[in-house]
């Protein structure tokens, strides 16, 4: 049965990035399945401040012509951006702001657009699918859908209150955000995450919730991205290219606060609150780079045949990290490029790099979005990983070359294995049927089924 589906996606093309891939691909396939899809998002110009102009207009080509896109102001005033980049004023804003600022600033435009669609245009959706980040969009969607009696499926993707790459300004800030989180979860019919470990964590965190309500839909790859493209890989040269694409999500100052006991902090930092301790230095390339330096010292003659590439906007700390580890001359930095260009870089690669954060007393719950595209190429993936979701899937894939991030020798030997594997009989290959589990079309079918059940039309 065909549905009217309203998609709420704060992040949408021409913005680029991983979360945008999820929203635009779902819109593409839900529309191709015969559903009438509309999108509620923000204006193009609003992304300039919010996302530092990481634009990829080519992604708009993915949106079917029949999809109506409603764009409204994000509502963020100019003064907010004027002071948010200054460390002192940024800290003050965090301290005196409670909850996701999107709930406050996007609310007027969001509510007006929602009313415009339903009341003035007489287009009432059978179901709403809201995808984050930012999480505040799911709060606004829950309020409006609850008020109007419209079924809702909220897609958090990653955890909200359980995402701990930085500490909360205080325990009271944490409780306020937790209240917003519960508001977003309680009304919706289904609540979606992207990993099984995140689902397990939320079941433990909110034992009163119906476990059937919490679902997992992974990120994935799109077959159509790889069709009719002139991808090239020179298998006859001796250069080995190891590539990492995307963000590292590591902030040195936040890590320091996360790990330091309260009485060793500065007085104004005493009230900072951490739900759990997570070390995001492990998500950075630091431990890989230490192993890379060890590799250079052990096999200096082979370094000339090794090319390491980090693709994406370089974080401010990366240059110092490369200098500290003595690997600056080995690593090439490629700034943010379009998705199409990313695919070309992937095609040229001989292996890929994955890293993951370390959760104290628990398991890492994140999976890098590019992991699923890496799978497509059926090439070795160097996993400098802690125990958790990404390591488990990489083990299942059959493509993993693993190294203990705390053991520089282990990382060095794993790089040596990749250097030798290009022409080896031991070249790893993807497990049969593994890739197909993460096809965007298949994942869209899973979402379609949830939306149909939520709408009550099935």
Q: Tell me about the biggest sheet?
A: 7 strands, parallel
Distance between the termini: 7 Å
Strand order of the largest sheet: 3-2-1-4-5-6-7
Q: Counting H and I runs of at least 4 residues, what is the number of helices?
A: 17
What portion of residues is helical? Answer: 25-40%
List the helices and strands and how they pair.
Blueprint: E1 4-9, H1 18-32, E2 36-42, H2 47-50, E3 68-72, H3 78-84, H4 87-96, H5 101-105, H6 107-120, E4 127-131, H7 136-148, E5 152-157, H8 171-187, E6 190-193, H9 196-205, E7 214-216, E8 240-245, H10 252-259, E9 278-279, H11 286-298, E10 306-311, H12 318-325, E11 331-334, H13 339-348, E12 351-355, E13 358-359, H14 371-376, E14 381-384, H15 389-397, E15 400-403, H16 408-421, H17 440-455
Parallel strand pairs: 1-2, 1-4, 2-3, 4-5, 5-6, 6-7, 8-10, 8-12, 10-11, 12-14, 14-15
Antiparallel strand pairs: 9-13
Would you give an account of this structure?
- There is one protein chain.
- The protein starts with a strand and ends with a helix.
- It is of the alpha/beta class.
- 39% of the residues lie in helices and 15% in strands.
- The longest helix has 17 residues, at 171-187.
- The strands form three sheets. Strands 3-2-1-4-5-6-7 form a seven-stranded parallel beta sheet, sandwiched between helices.
- The protein has 17 helices and 15 strands.
- It has helices at 18-32, 47-50, 78-84, 87-96, 101-105, 107-120, 136-148, 171-187, 196-205, 252-259, 286-298, 318-325, 339-348, 371-376, 389-397, 408-421, 440-455; strands at 4-9, 36-42, 68-72, 127-131, 152-157, 190-193, 214-216, 240-245, 278-279, 306-311, 331-334, 351-355, 358-359, 381-384, 400-403.
